[in-house]
Structure formats: C-alpha cells, structure tokens
Amino acid sequence: MLVDGEWTDKSVGRTNTRGEFVRPESSFREWIGDAGNRFPAQANRYHLFVNAGCPWAYRTLLYRSIKGLRDLVSVSYTRPAMGKQGWTFAGSLEPVLNAQHIHDVYRAADKQFTGRTTVPVLWDKQQHTIVNNESSEIIRMFDSVFDTFDGVSSTRYYPAHLAEEIDSLNQRIYDDVNNGVYRCGFAQSQEAYEEAFDRLFACLDELDQRLSAQRFLCGSEVTEADWRLFATLVRFDIAYYGQFRCNRSHLAEFKHLWPYTRDLYQYPGVAETVDVAAIKGIYYGSRPPHILPKGPRLDFSAPANRGEPHERGASSGRRVSPSGNHHG
Question: I want to staple 20 with a disulfide (CB 3.0 to 4.6 A). Which of 47, 81, 192, 303 is the partner?
C-alpha cells in the first residue's frame, strides 16, 4: 500500500479480531456520464489498468469484450504474480503513464494517496486521474454509457425489469461466493474458515438447484449476476479449490453449475478473456515457493447442452462524432 504517497511493503492487517478476512472499501468512486459530466463518455479517453488473473479486474476485461469496447477503452496488464512493490507491469514501463507499478498510477492521481493499490483502475487520459477503482461500478458503467457508439453491443446486462432481482443475487453471491472464497483462503482462525466454507458451499448448492429449472440466474436472459458469478466459477478448480482450501467439491461435481459455467464461457467474446496462466500466476506465483500447478484438466469448450448457441448482441448502429463525443 501507499502511505502519504510513499510505498510500503510491510504486512497490512486484513482480518478482524475473529480472524475473518475484511475487504477494504474502494477509494475512487466517480462515474462516466453524459456530455455535461466531469467524465463524459468519449472514445479513446479511458484506460484500464488490470491483472488478467484477478477476478475483480477480470470483470472489467469481460465487459470490455462482451460489450464491444475494445476500440473505445484501452488496457494495460500487470504481470500475473505480485512482487515486492505490488502489481508490476509486464515489460519495462507501462505506455500510458510510463509507470512501472500500479502504485505509480495511484500516485499519479494523488501524490499523497494512502491506501491499498488495487486493480482494476479506470483512468481518464485527459484529466490524468483515476475515475473509479471499484469493479462492480466500472462494469455497471460499461453496461450502458457507451451504447450509442458504433460497434458497441446494445445488450444490457442490468435491465430495469430485473434490477431488483439482480441486486439481491449480487449481494448474496458477493458475500458468500465472490468474497467467500477469499474469506476461506485468508481466514486466520479455524472458526472463521469453517464459517466461510459452510456459507460458500451452502450458496453454491442453492445456485446449483436454482439452475436446475432455468438456464441463467434470472431466467432466460444473461445478466450482470451471471457474469459476477462466472468470474469466480471459472477460477474455482484452478485456484480456490486447492490454494484457498475450498475443497468440499470440485466445480465439475455440481450437476448444473458446471455446464452453466461452460455455457457462459462459450458466450461470444468470453473465451478470449479467460487467461488460465494468469490465474495460476496470481494465486500460486505470488506465494512461496512460486510453483505453478500443471493441472487441473478443464474443458470449458465442451458442449453445455443448456439451450441454443449464443448470438452476440446487435450494435446500436450509431457512430462516434469526430470530436470523440457521442450524440444521442
């Protein structure tokens, strides 16, 4: 983390007195909006700093792909494994800021920043600052703010008619699955670990049963709730089962969650965002003895048999003006 703009690699407490893992709040929480907003939606203005193995950063990469934002939002990747100065960029220097580490990005936005320097980071190249570093808010932005640009999918994964159901699912899945695997892996007491473990698998069992009667979590439509769950499920057997002691059941042992995961993986634009080497790198390469596992064998491309093949959402057909501003 940074303390008054200075890097420290001293151990930072992340558990409470019961030994439970506690995730800190994100620091930058502004939004991309319309033309009158401080951060208007413009082509080639925004940039993502990410780690491809991190499930939180992965959400933003996933949305960048499935929404068709690759030509609008640029990206820089860190090395898979965390080093002594946190996340370090692949190659020599990162090209947008000539940064070597993620903490350089935070310092560029605030020279006196104090806090953990996490990914993802959504950066404004014009104002030279961080817009947002909360993954759930970045994907909510990506779901709609660029929809009037040429080539962007008009599919909305947070439709108004399902918003209440999605929000309810998101909260349960975050508490017990997305963050639940971390509560297992980072627990510092037997009691805290077993409580997190039991809640994790109780939730997965419920979701497995839910998917026995419908293709996706909210019915026939893929929604934000599915993508937030997918980010954890696609990493489950690769990392969480072994490294985080989430070892009651492999994902492949769930009758419905396993084909559901393959179904989402085969959605247009998804497969190319899943970097198994980066996932192994972040979870195993960041911890001594830095040995990456050869397995497991997982075939995400095997037929899911959960309905008709997916079709990519249609583009809105509207174009970007020469100035970079979009017009409704």
Answer: 192
